[in-house]
Design goal:
Elements lengths: L10 E6 L2 E6 L4 E7 L2 E2 L17 E2 L5 E3 L2 E4 L2 E4 L9 E3 L9 E5 L3 E8 L9 E10 L2 E10 L5 E3 L2 E2 L2 E2 L36 E3 L2 E7 L6 E6 L14 E2 L6 E7 L7 E6 L5 E6 L5 E5 L13 E6 L5 H4 L4 E3 L4 E10 L1
Antiparallel strand pairs: 1-2, 2-3, 3-4, 5-15, 6-9, 7-8, 10-11, 11-12, 12-13, 13-27, 14-26, 16-25, 17-20, 17-22, 18-19, 18-21, 21-24, 22-23, 23-27, 24-25
Amino acid sequence: MSVATPASGTAFSLTAGDYVAEIASVGASLRALRYRGRDLVLPFDANDRRPAMQGAVLAPWPNRLADGVYTFDGVEHHLPLTEPATHNASHGLVAWLDFSPVEQSEHRLVLCGRIEPQPGYPWRIRIDVTFELTVDGFRQVVSASNESAERAPVGLGVHPYVLAGISDNADGSDNADGSDTADGSDTGVRRRGALNDWHLTVPAHAVLQVTEDRMLPLDVVDVAEHNAGALDFRQRRHIGSTVLNHAFTALDADADGWATITVSSAEGHGVELRWDARAPWVQIYSSDAQPTATRRQGLAIEPMTCPPDAFNSGTDLRVLPAGETTELEWRLRAL
């Protein structure tokens, strides 16, 4: 009797030093990432259909595309509305694509999938996703190669939900510092609203204002001026009840062009997420619209090469000539 493939696709594992990563082939999704048994991203079981966009690759556009309609090189295209409530096409075309392995070792995995020409997006784009673990942490590179005869619009993103301070430890405790959760829950049961206790640092000087009903772009404003600085996390501060579902830009970076976000508990346990200059935007989402079991339990940090609705605005949109490749790279390590 053949063994059924898990609902999330073929399962892969990587190990290096104190890190373990679990990968699902559907959506080339990061299913779990742990450091010394502590979850660094919100995990899901291999036999579960991936919850929402948890750990998925976003291509050939991230975020929302208004009405699923855009014009490129004088031709109007219509995409399926994958977010019916807001009448948007959301997060691209590969989230439910089953990727195939082209390289695999103990520390490294490369998965490949193709966007075939279809109504609304008539180009063939090869997507290669490289996962790599070292003793210093996790690295992912998403590559998009245009295998069509014509140039194509391309945007890339990723969608991990990071955690700070909560784990499933072998000693029966739930927190990284060895203490129990505040509500006395058992091992493996995450306290609702956990991210309210965390601290966040975001090196962004500007934030994209969006419409309240459809989350579509209005204008970019100074983060210190928007809502009296409610979304200004340039200095590490407590998240509390702040609701986040915003794209940030104008990022401070190091000498090599890398921007860094930290999410941590009061004691300093958490994660550091970094990405390179090829992604001048980052969406941060406090998972308030998630089902009750995962609401405000993970913080989605989504480096993006372009903002929402870039197929219409053209802002930071990559127009990829035939035969050329574009990439997005990001890294994650434990604090």
